[in-house]
Amino acid sequence: MSEQDSQGPARDFIGYGATPPNPKWPGGARLAVNIALNIEEGSEYSPLDGDAKTDTALTEGEGMDTGIAGRDLAAESMYEYGSRVGVWRLLRMLADRNVPYTAFACALALERHRELAERIAADGADICCHGWRWEKPWLLTREQEREHIQRAIDSLQATVGRKPEGWCCRYGPSTNTRELLVEAQIGYDSDAYNDEVPYWVEVRGVQQLIVPYSLVTNDCKLVPRGLQTADEFHALLRDAFDQLYEEGAEAPRMLNIGLHPRMAGHPGRARGLARFLDHIVGHKDVWICRRADIASHWKTHFPAPATGAEA
After folding, report:
1. Which of 13, 99, 133, 137 is most exposed, with the fewest beta carbons within 10 Å of its own?
2. Burial, 123: exposed, middle or buried (Cβ in 10 Å; 0-12, 13-18, 19+)?
3. DSSP3 helix / strand / coil % (the chain, rounded to 5)
4. Among 234, 237, 242, which Cα is nearest to 270's?
5. Would you say residue 196 has pLDDT above 50?
6. For the NodB homology domain, which residue ranges apply (predicted)?
């Protein structure tokens, strides 16, 4: 992989090409599945935190022309549903099936919900930090972003008891993010959507592991005018799983499932997720794991190449 330049990461259109490596997942698994539980509620843009208006992203009102310039009390309550109700439903569903998960957690959200922070710690879930706040990093200066990364690390050490293993920004990174994560010694970066297995990139003379994420098998598809029913959500996730499981006989991959408590946590949507979870736990040769486990596995079996070499 090419080193970053002053304009940010170089583009790579080739990747592993037609012959990606066999990941050698534990137990010879055909597929690694990671459940990413996005915890954002309480860290979104809000006039109460000095922002111009209320965030409406991934709410039932997204895209509506409300004309509300300041606090949108309806949108605020839709976020609160996720932290008050939805997250506990999703955690029960995962616990009932002994399914591990990764907390894609915004640090401020856990500061404002200590009970949830304690649950994450007790569950042994790993942390792929979703930022200090659920903010758009490309709107920050380089120094502001550096400050927010360190603030998030310090916060998570206080609430969950440890530094995050990985990082994934809201939607995507700035041109500075990857360098700043290396500087902060974050173990892996998930701000990429371009592959189905991890890979290494060189960042200012340091090899950084990329564990790609997905916005396809993600409940962001449940926003208004998107998928509307549990059956549609289940079909999307199950078809992705079945396709990758079939391919995994020859070329194992990883499958990311992104969940938001204020979206998938609603009962009419959660049923689709429940059916999907029951489907995958009934399969052999599937490694359902934390994201940090995938990163650790890759570092062990596919260690970073020498600086300057192709990843």
Report:
1. 13
2. middle
3. 40, 15, 45
4. 234
5. yes
6. 73-289
Overall domain count for the chain: 1
Q: What does pTM read for this prediction?
A: 0.93
For the stretch 67-76, pLDDT in tens is: 788 899 999 9
What does the alpha-carbon distance between residue 180 and residue 82 come to, in Å, rounded to a whole number?
Answer: 30
| E strand map for 170-226 | 188-189, 199-203, 206-210
The residue segments making up the domain with residue 84 are: 26-301
pLDDT computed for residue 1 by the predictor: 37
227 closest CA partner among 219, 265, 61: 219
Q: Are strands 166-167 and 126-129 parallel, antiparallel or unpaired?
A: parallel
Amino acid at 6: S
**Rg, Å, the chain Cα set:** 19
Which DSSP helix (H) or strand (E) runs through 301? Answer: helix 291-301
The reply to whether 86 falls in a domain is yes
Residue 287, domain member (yes or no):
yes
Evaluate whether residue 136 is within a structural domain: yes
Q: How far apart are CA 80 and CA 86, in angstroms?
A: 9
Supply 34's token pair: 């990671």
- Of 19, 23, 87, 82, the C-alpha closest to 289 is 23
Q: What is the CATH number of the domain that holds 65?
A: 3.20.20.370
Beta strand residue intervals within 96-210, DSSP E: 102-105, 126-129, 166-167, 188-189, 199-203, 206-210
Task: Look at residue 1 and tell me if it is in a domain.
Answer: no
- Paired strand residues for 155: none
